[in-house]
Write a structure and sequence with these properties.
heterodimer, A: 267 residues, mainly alpha, 2 domains, 11 helices, 2 strands, 69% helix, B: 281 residues, alpha/beta, Rossmann fold, six-stranded mixed sheet, four-stranded antiparallel sheet, 10 strands
Chain lengths: 267, 281
């Protein structure tokens, strides 16, 4: 049951998007998200859609994986659309009892829907083509300037990658403890929510104890291997920009410029 | 002077009360003297709570002695300036393979030690390639550690230590959580490193079978070294080992019982072949 949960949904494939530096993908995703809020008209959305579609095509990830991500936010999408439709004042298109659907509402709802769909699929391109490790590396490098104001960037990135490493281990452990407790008569499935939550205690207590023990062991093992924080540390796989990464940045800048021009000239 | 030398080593675990005052002390290591030469294969035997793991942690400067001194390659472990050099010289492999692998890809985990030491990127790669090849894990280099067997994970952990180019590796019950096959593959890998790379090995264990091929054996009980010698010498003292709640390999035990019942058999039989040849005289 717990095995179905996956964090980061990397889809291995051999594409130009997969090979891009993770920093480019990270910055690119940010630019794309900003752009869909700069674009404020349907021709603009068409440009963004075109950009998104070409990225999906280049990434060689089957579009159905993108739609999987959308399914998870379908409810949110529906709620946004309905509320926008009903609650925006303006010219009434049709009336159903006290519910009034306005023209402005319909346009607003359409825009919100497009934005949300673009937002989700845009960010899933990043998570589908970048391994979690590459992502933490990218974050570490991009946030490095924050070191100056004493943000422990290296430590945060290290914590994130260790968390990623231990998720499957702790999942397995949860499964094991669950079975052990069920064998002793624990009941995780009946009762109302409050009872069920209470029943989780015999699962959570051993899980936490074991997690702390693992953390202690891991800290010792890391120290034994000379870990002493980010100082004087070299990297086995340092991030290095290549020609294609600079090209990608150029494309991104051009795209952003287009978005701003659309906005300025009210296209 | 040997690569690891301990003189009157003592260590107390302190127990604190709620106000941070020392409530009680427990002696974990007591008056231990060691002298280990470079290239030796040493086994340290002992029952649970005999202080063998505590002793192991001293060799890597994870614990500092309360009394006496321990030198690793002529460096006093108590001097803070040398801590990182000592940890590089004396690598350590722990019991639980899951809790010592840091990265999500095998090769990245092997590179973790050299990264910490500040080795340039190109050198890290040669070290990682070397280390993986030495433990026979090169084919798994792009795998996730979660998908490996216990024995394979432990070999990755050993590779991670080897990538730091230590002159000595301390293995703290590396096989305790493995199945018999995994145990064999780890012990074999360690023996090979000892022979081909001339790395000093200090193997801490309570499995007698793993001790037979060691150069020297130390037996620990309640913090003290109570017996030391070659495996043959140690295993000829069956009654004494039993007193320290240690098992003897089956063959040795059989030979011992036969001798007690009047057969003319020498002490310290370690392998089936040896016993067969003695019996067939």
């Amino acid at each position: 049951m717990l095995k179905d949960i996956t964090i980061g949904q990397y889809y291995p494939a051999d594409s130009i998007i997969h090979k891009l530096d993770p920093r480019v993908k990270f910055v690119g995703t940010m630019i794309f998200i900003v752009s869909i809020f700069i674009f404020n008209s349907f021709p603009g959305y068409f440009v963004a859609g075109l950009f998104l579609a070409s990225m999906i095509a280049l990434s060689k990830v089957p579009p159905k994986f993108m739609f999987k991500g959308l399914r998870a936010v379908f409810m949110l999408l529906m709620i946004t659309v309905i509320f926008n439709m009903v609650l925006t004042p303006g010219d009434i298109v049709f009336k159903l009892g006290f519910i009034k659907v306005t023209r402005e509402g319909l346009i607003m709802a359409g825009k919100m829907a497009v934005r949300l769909v673009f937002l989700i699929s845009g960010s899933s391109i990043m998570t589908l083509t970048t391994t979690p490790n590459q992502l933490t590396d990218a974050m570490e490098r991009l946030l490095r300037p924050l070191n100056r104001i004493h943000v422990p960037v290296h430590e945060i990135a290290m914590m994130m990658s260790i968390a990623l490493r231990f998720i499957p281990i702790l999942m397995e452990e949860t499964d094991k403890i669950m079975k052990a407790q069920i064998a002793r008569g624990a009941d995780f499935e009946s009762g109302n929510i409050i009872q069920r939550t209470k029943n989780m205690i015999p699962l959570l207590v051993p899980l936490f104890i074991s997690a702390f023990r693992r953390a202690n062991d891991l800290a010792l093992a890391m120290e034994a291997r000379c870990y002493h924080g980010g100082e004087n540390r070299t990297q086995m796989k340092p991030l290095k920009y290549e020609r294609k990464d600079y090209m990608a940045y150029l494309i991104l800048i051009a795209y952003l410029a287009a978005a701003i021009l659309f906005r300025v000239f009210k296209l | 002077m040997g690569i690891i030398k301990a003189l009157k080593l003592g260590f107390d675990y302190l127990k604190y009360d709620d106000d941070g005052n020392v409530e009680s002390t427990q002696r974990a290591v007591d008056d231990v003297n060691l002298d280990i030469e470079a290239g030796e294969f040493i086994a340290i035997l002992g029952h649970n709570g005999s202080g063998k793991s505590t002793l192991a942690k001293h060799m890597n400067a994870l614990l500092l002695p309360s009394e006496g001194t321990l030198w690793v390659d002529n460096m006093d472990t108590a001097s803070e300036a040398d801590t990182w050099k000592i940890r590089q010289k004396a690598g350590m492999v722990f019991q639980n393979p899951d809790n010592q692998i840091i990265a999500t890809v095998v090769e990245e985990d092997v590179g973790f030690g050299p990264e910490n030491m500040g080795i340039p990127t190109a050198d890290i790669w040669t070290r990682v390639d070397d280390a993986l090849q030495k433990v026979g894990m090169t084919t798994y280099r792009h795998h996730s550690p979660n998908k490996l067997s216990g024995g394979q994970k432990q070999r990755v952990a050993i590779a991670g230590v080897m990538a730091m180019r230590p002159s000595c590796i301390v293995l703290d019950e590396p096989t305790a959580m493995l199945d018999p096959n995994g145990r064999k593959e780890v012990i074999k890998a360690v023996h090979e490193l000892n022979k081909t790379e001339n790395v000093t090995v200090i193997l801490i264990t309570h499995y007698m079978e793993e001790v037979i091929d060691a150069d020297r054996v130390y037996v620990m009980d309640s913090g003290k070294v109570v017996m030391q010698g070659t495996p043959k010498e140690i295993f000829s003292r069956v009654e004494e080992l039993k007193h320290y709640r240690l098992d003897v390999p089956q063959v040795t035990l059989l030979a011992h019982e036969l001798k007690k019942n009047g057969l003319d058999i020498p002490d310290g039989i370690l392998t089936t072949e040896e016993l067969v040849s003695v019996l067939c005289r």
